Amino acid sequence: MKKQSNIVEYQFEASQFEWEIAEGKTIQAWGFNKQVPGPIIKARKGDTLVVRLKNSLSESTMIHWHGIRVPASMDGTGEVQKPVAPGEEFEYRFQVEDAGSFWYHSHHNETVQMERGMYGAIVVEDELDPVVDEEKIFMIDDMKLTANFEFTKPSWALPRLIEKHDGRQGDTLLINGKVDSLLHMHARQMERWRFINASSARYFKLYLGGREFKIIGSDGGLIEQPVVVREALITPGERLDIMVGPFKEGEIIPIDSLSYSRSTFLRPKKETFASVKVLEAKPSVANIPPFLRVIEPLAPQEAAINRKVKFSVGPSLKNGMNFLINNGLHVLDEPVKVGELQVWEIDNVSLMDHPFHLHGFFFQVLEINGKAPAYKAWKDTINLTPRTKVKIAWMPDNRPGKWMYHCHILEHHAAGMMASFEVI
Ligand code: C2O
Ligand code: CU
Which stretches are annotated as coiled coil (predicted)? Predict the structure, then answer.
């Protein structure tokens, strides 16, 4: 049988517009096609995606396809592309080779552009996907707004330093661009919920009011077997696919984030981002097999490390605080060769959490502080708790060019916690 490649096309316009986050509460958002999040991109594994971006903002922008194995030239970073200037256009074109929950976001002046809403979800389906009754996407974000729903930057030195240190954590909690959403599902049915954390710095610890749910997917698509839990951490940049239900008619399922201390000045309490009301029963066709797919290990847990990456935070006379990789700011790391297995140790010597994100390639976590992770998954973002070493393995397939890795807390990335390197 010949594999058919379908072309899926989208026209994107980046602009400023009024966006209603709740009834009567409007912000001056920046986004794609006048909505926050931008349009949901839907494709099937193997499709060619074409997104024509027109920039109608008053500043340059670029789109990064977080988690998609694009060619280097399509990665949407300053390493590989000239930012799209106001009034200009750019065409992104690439094949989507993996099924799963991905996302796109601005990769230019991120602490402003992403904060204002320049992101959206990408769902890539394939025939391995379990049959479910319904699917929902939950894009998590928080915004820091004044009483008049205006974006603010702290003007005083201390709050500015705190925002730099902790990342901007907002007070307006959003799911799919809305505050306090009430969604619906039906009793007796089972749904797949795809969570994408698009916030600058919020650690989202998913909790459904104590109900069990099944993790079925991670950054790079399905995991091997469903894992039953009652809570799960989703850091900025990460995705998590879960199966929920069946629930009883009349139940209200809260989409909560439990308190999580990332060892910063902030210690958010438990908060509710949205709720799902269970309506009358409908028949179910859902079928979640006990085994979802095979994830072949790239390397054994004891594989020899061939690169060390150190994350640290240090005082600085010039910047107040430096967010460093291998003791440098925005550094250039050594090249890697196509086809040569990479086993990296990411060592967080700082006293706070950082979500490490690798562009363009999925990795497997071999160990966290010497222990194998709870389940096998393809990842592109992994949290580093304070004083933690994470060992990852990844394979540079034949996509030479310039790539990067960085902390996905946007303020940390901007403050220097990023490195670029070449695949040759
Ligand atoms: Cu979503 Cu450079 O990252
Ligand atoms: Cu960080």
Answer: none
Q: How is domain 7-127 classified at the architecture level of CATH?
A: Sandwich (2.60)
Question: d(Cα 224, Cα 377) in Å, to the nearest integer?
Answer: 7
What is the per-residue pLDDT for 1? 42
Residue 2 has pLDDT above 60, yes or no: no
Does the model's pTM come out above 0.90?
yes
| Ligand 2 is an ion; residues with CB less than 5 A from it | 354, 407, 409, 412
Domain with CATH 2.60.40.420 in the chain: 7-127, 135-279, 307-423
For domain 307-423, say whether CATH 2.60.40.420 is its number. yes
User: pLDDT-based confidence at 23, cuts 50/70/90?
Assistant: very high
Residue nearest to atom 3 of ligand 1 (CA): 66
Q: Are 59 and 109 in contact (CB under 8 A)?
A: yes
Distance from the alpha carbon of residue 211 to the mean position of ligand 2, in angstroms:
31
ipTM: 0.98
Query: Three-state SS for 209?
Result: coil
Please give the Cα distance from 41 to 49 (Å, whole number).
Answer: 9
Residue 64 beta carbon below 6 angstroms from any ligand 1 atom: yes
pLDDT band at 3 (very low <50, low <70, confident <90, very high): low
Atom of ligand 1 nearest to the CA of 418: 2
CB 290: neighbour CB atoms within 10 A? 6
- The highest-level CATH class for domain 135-279 is mainly beta
CB of 164 closer than 6 A to ligand 1? no
| pLDDT 10s digits, 156-192 | 878 888 888 889 989 999 999 999 999 999 999 999 9
Could you tell me the distance, in angstroms and rounded to a whole number, from the CA of residue 197 to the centre of ligand 1? 12
- CA 323 / ligand 2 centre spacing (Å): 7
